[in-house]
From TrEMBL:
This is Zn(2)-C6 fungal-type domain-containing protein. Keywords: DNA-binding, Metal-binding, Nucleus, Transcription, Transcription regulation. One of its GO terms (cellular component) is nucleus. Residues 296-314 have a biased composition (Polar residues). It is found in: Nucleus. The lineage of its organism: Eukaryota, Fungi, Dikarya, Ascomycota, Pezizomycotina. One of its GO terms (molecular function) is DNA-binding transcription factor activity, RNA polymerase II-specific. The keyword Nucleus applies. The keyword DNA-binding applies. PROSITE patterns: ZN2_CY6_FUNGAL_1 (PS00463), ZN2_CY6_FUNGAL_2 (PS50048). Residues 294-314, 540-559 are annotated as: Disordered. It holds the Pfam family Fungal_trans.
Amino acid sequence: MGRSQAPCVQCRYRKVRCDRQQDTCGNCKRLEFSCSYRQNVSCKETKKLKSESVPPERQRASRACFECRRQKARCSGDLPSCETCRQRQRECHYTDSDLPVESSQLLKSASALFPIRRQELLRAIGQFFRHLYPIPSFAFLHEPSVRQHCLDGSLDQSLALSLAAVTNAYLSTDQRLLQECASWMLRAEAENIQHLHQPSIRRVQTLLLTVHYYIRTGEFARAYMLVGLAARAATALRLNYERPELTFVAQETRRRVIWALTSIDGYFSVGLPEHETISYPIIYQRWPCHEEEFSDGNTQRSTGSIQNLTKPNSAKTPNLLSACHQITKIQRDVMRLTRQLAISEEPLAALPGLVQEIQNDLWRLHDDVELSSEFSISAMTRQLEMNHSQWFARYLLAALLWHQVHCDLYRIFLPGYPEAVPARIMNTTDANFCEHAVQMCHIHVMQVTEILAGVLALSDIPVLPHHVAVCAYQSARLILFLPSLHCSRPEITTESAIRSANLALSVLHTFFSSTPFAERIITDLEHLLQASVMSPATAREPGYLSSAPSDSGRQRHSQLAVHSLVRQAKFEDDDYET
């Protein structure tokens, strides 16, 4: 039997069908009402319910979502999305005015923070790890964990929004979608700012994605301020230190976050300590491990100390993420050396030896990679052969950076070059060493040019690292300058230099024409090429203001290159007290 004959008081008031279940009917149980069928309800309370003329507050009828109302379907009223919308994989919207106050507030904190369908999010995650994650400054998320959290519905909402937004910003041309991404990013950013005093790994990762988004959209000032917040949060969490008690994936995630932060920081600081948000001397973490280890959570091929690149790798796949970060660190050291030499007032007899030490570090890194994986960074064709690999960006970046750092290191000994050491140091430097520097510049800038020529032949690469644009720009400047040197090789003619510079410009136009980051680079190189074509003698003159020769070493020390995002942010101090 187990069923009452008459409907309960609540259902009778609401004029809804009562299932007459004993103790508590289904409607009262679902809506958490005090059902008149409850055996423990006192007679006095039952009489009170029957005698009330005003029905309880409506909670069910006005909670149908927009889609269920439109299709006249039963709506469960669940937040952030109803059961029907979840089953049909459609976006669920409620009208705030039709909800109780508590439900409206819950909607704003739940549904409004997750306006992306699961399938769209999974698609964005797939594109992110296929095209953006291979770039070292993006390599700070654990793909299996992110995918699993997405399937479980437990992925951090701000992280999900920022990941989808930055992926679409780099890969989509749909203007409507890009406008939605802007609102997603603002929402994720606001969430981070609101919890600024409660840093976490996820929030630091969200901040890094936010910084990447604003770099992509040209909001460099906003990106610069946010990368400072990310660095402060990272040091507050002590991500710059090892945590041996954590799981392997947790430890490696911490490492990758801090190393990605140093890579992003380099976009802004370009060797100027005052613009650094995180400095290498305070990092006591190991280099990132192989991707296979990180993806599988395997600790057997774990990296050793911070000085070691890798241990023997049975898979013979190079740890190019570690290599790229190490080359970037060496490049930062070269930049700082160049700036320090600009303000040096005394001849530096130990300078050739210092340069040789940096050269040894580069070759040591080269040999470590070759020994562990039978892969040669300097083998130009190997990088281009890997264009179908997911990790092509890392193969390309490791090779370009390795050659570009050589150019950065030796160009300071080219008389008349904007970044050259002061005359008092140049005059005391051994002439044979200066000749060697010219030859090294020629060798490595030609290698960069040949790699760029191979890249230009590839048309199916959706995204290239920003460093590729910088290498193309700097190599073009250098090769246009080399013919003006009397000790230069005979094969370095003005005509061949202009051809090489035009090739670099073609790479910039092909892969970076829609990137705000590269606009000034492209414009500057075009002006330099025009001047070189009109008068070969102008090849000695820099085509951009940031490297214009100056009589003041202090000015040269603090100059920002045209590709510095701090310079492009155009900060102005226009508020003065009188």
